[in-house]
Structures are given as structure tokens and as C-alpha cells.
Amino acid sequence: MTSKRDDRRKAAVEKQIDENLRRAFEQDATEQIPDRFLALLDQLREQK
Question: What InterPro entries does UniProt report for this protein, alphabetically (predicted)?
């Protein structure tokens, strides 16, 4: 069972990861994040 505090922390970490990926790919802003990276993120989120 997770607490609300854990849920908020987990959401904050996910947000930070998403923001960092966007920054890393900012130079290619006209291109989408590759599907393989999105799939990897989904796999990582499922492992919680």
C-alpha cells in the first residue's frame, strides 16, 4: 500500500524524467520522441 506522499513523490519523479527527456530532445522539437523511448518509459512505469 502506498501513501499519498509516496504517490506524489512518484508523480514528481515521473514529471522530472519527462521534462528531462523533452529538454534532451528539444533541439529536435519538430520531431516526436521515438516510439522505442516511449515504450521504454511505459515499461519502466509498469515496474513500480
Answer: NepR
Q: Give CA–CA dist 35/43, Å, rounded.
A: 12
CA atoms within 13 A on the CB side of 1: 1
Angle at 48 between CA 5 and CA 8, to 5 degrees: 20
Express each pLDDT in 12-42 by its tens digit.
Answer: 999 999 999 888 877 666 677 889 988 998 9
45 contacts 14 by C-beta, under 8 angstroms: yes
Can you read off the three cell numbers belonging to residue 26? 528539444
CA distance 31 to 41: 18
